[in-house]
């Protein structure tokens, strides 16, 4: 039994956990959606637990094991849900890929809040435009190219590690869905170079648990309150990189 604590109304980082639970058909309760934001905030209070998390998402397993941070949660529950490599080396590699996705998601978030979440987007739009342009030119192709190269190295399988899907595949699927919402023009310019990632996303969407979830009301739409946000002024084509490679 899993209790997922995450803010209601946004997919956010909690969605990476939901996808794993839904894919496996796990017995879980989305506390925020059931009981509201107050129930999530309550759990942050150090008076209620001797191991308080810094921020959602966090997960309770069987009412006793408490886990925080997306990569940490997935590292623990992946084997339980049969969504992890079956050896230590594979699990370590999967965890490294998940941490890379964590970094990627942070950089995506910072395109619309480069000065920090304490300010509204409208208070940092000018800086956001510059940050987003640099992100589209440099960081977006770098991250996606990395995952594309890994997939291309073993074309006999659509998955990042071995012959079976892992939580990292589900997470990359979610990142691509978010990028298509936030940066549709930029992603369209890269699509021809992302054939293996596109195949992975198609394979994830066809998994029975995921297909059912995507058609259900439990799958929340992206919106302007989450990690992935669409501001037309931040989107655009991938500009040529004319930087000096020796710098």
What does this structure look like?
The protein is of the alpha+beta class and 247 residues long. It has 2 domains: 2-80, Glutaredoxin (3-Layer(aba) Sandwich), CATH 3.40.30; 88-234, Glutathione S-transferase Yfyf (Class Pi), Chain A, domain 2 (Up-down Bundle). It is built from 10 helices and 4 strands. The protein has helices at 14-24, 31-35, 37-44, 70-80, 88-112, 125-152, 167-182, 184-190, 195-205, 208-214; strands at 2-5, 28-30, 58-61, 65-68. A 4-stranded mixed beta sheet has the order 2-1-3-4, with helices on both faces. It is globular. The termini are far apart. The model has no long low-confidence stretch (mean pLDDT 93).
Supply database-style keywords.
single chain, 247 residues, alpha+beta, Glutathione S-transferase Yfyf (Class Pi), Chain A, domain 2, 2 domains
In short:
By secondary structure, the chain is of the alpha+beta class.
| Biggest β-sheet strands, sense, barrel | 4 strands, mixed
Order of helices and strands: EHEHHEEHHHHHHH
Task: Estimate the helix proportion, in percent.
Answer: 40-55%
Taken together, the total number of domains comes to 2
Strand content: 5-15%
How many beta-strand segments?
4
Radius of gyration: 18 Å
N-end to C-end Cα span:
52 Å
Shape, please? Answer: globular
User: What is the count of DSSP helices, taking H or I runs of 4+ residues?
Assistant: 10
According to CATH, what is the topology of the largest domain?
A: Glutathione S-transferase Yfyf (Class Pi), Chain A, domain 2
Class based on secondary structure composition and strand pairing: alpha+beta
- What is the level-2 CATH architecture name of the largest domain? Up-down Bundle
Indicate the CATH class of the largest domain.
Mainly Alpha
Name the average pLDDT.
93
Which residues form runs of ≥5 with pLDDT under 50? Answer: none
Q: Strands of the largest sheet, in order across it?
A: 2-1-3-4
């Amino acid at each position: 039994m899993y209790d997922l604590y995450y803010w209601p109304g946004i997919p956010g980082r909690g969605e990476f956990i939901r996808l794993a639970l839904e894919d496996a058909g796990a017995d879980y309760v989305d506390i925020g959606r059931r009981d509201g934001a107050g129930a999530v905030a309550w759990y942050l209070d150090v008076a209620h637990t001797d191991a308080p998390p810094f921020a959602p998402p966090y997960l309770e397993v069987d009412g006793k094991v408490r886990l925080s941070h997306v990569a940490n949660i997935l590292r623990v529950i992946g084997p339980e849900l049969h969504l992890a490599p079956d050896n230590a080396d594979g699990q370590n590699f999967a965890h490294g890929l998940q941490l890379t996705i964590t970094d990627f998601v942070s950089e995506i978030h910072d395109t619309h809040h480069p000065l920090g979440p304490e300010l509204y987007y409208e208070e940092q739009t000018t800086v956001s435009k510059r940050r987003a342009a640099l992100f589209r030119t440099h960081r977006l192709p770098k991250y996606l190219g990395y995952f594309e190269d890994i997939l291309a190295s073993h074309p006999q399988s659509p998955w990042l590690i071995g012959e079976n899907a892992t939580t990292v595949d589900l997470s990359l699927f979610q990142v691509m869905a978010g990028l298509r919402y936030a940066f549709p023009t930029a992603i369209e310019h890269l699509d021809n170079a992302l054939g293996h990632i596109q195949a992975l996303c198609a394979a994830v969407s066809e998994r029975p648990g995921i297909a059912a979830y995507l058609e259900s009301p439990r799958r929340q739409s992206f919106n302007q309150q989450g990690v992935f946000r669409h501001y037309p002024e931040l989107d655009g084509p991938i500009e040529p990189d004319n930087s000096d490679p020796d710098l």
